[in-house]
Amino acid sequence: MRRLQQSGLMFYSCWLICLLGALTLWPKESVTAGTQRLSLEERLSCQRAIEEVYWKHTIWPEENDSPKPPLSEVLPESALRKKVSEALRQSNAIKALWGEPVSGEQIQAEMERMAQTSRNPEMLQELWAALGNDPQKIAECLARPLLVEREIHGNYAYDERFHGKLKEQAAKEAEGCNAVWGMKGLKGKYAEVEWKRGKSQEDRELGKGRAGDTRKITLSEDEWDKEIGRLAGIFGQSGQASSELTEGLVSGIHRRDSPDRHGQTISELPVGCVSGLQEDADRYYVLGVLDKGHDTVRVATVVWQKTPFDEWWGSVRGRYAQGVERERFTYKLPEISSSAAPSDTWSPTEEFVPSGYSSHTAVWTGTSMIVWGGQDNSGNPVNTGGRYDPAANTWLATIIINAPVGRYLHTAVWTNTEMIVWGGEDNTGLTTNTGGRYTP
Question: For residues 144 and 241, which has the higher predicted lDDT (pLDDT)?
Answer without folding.
Answer: 144
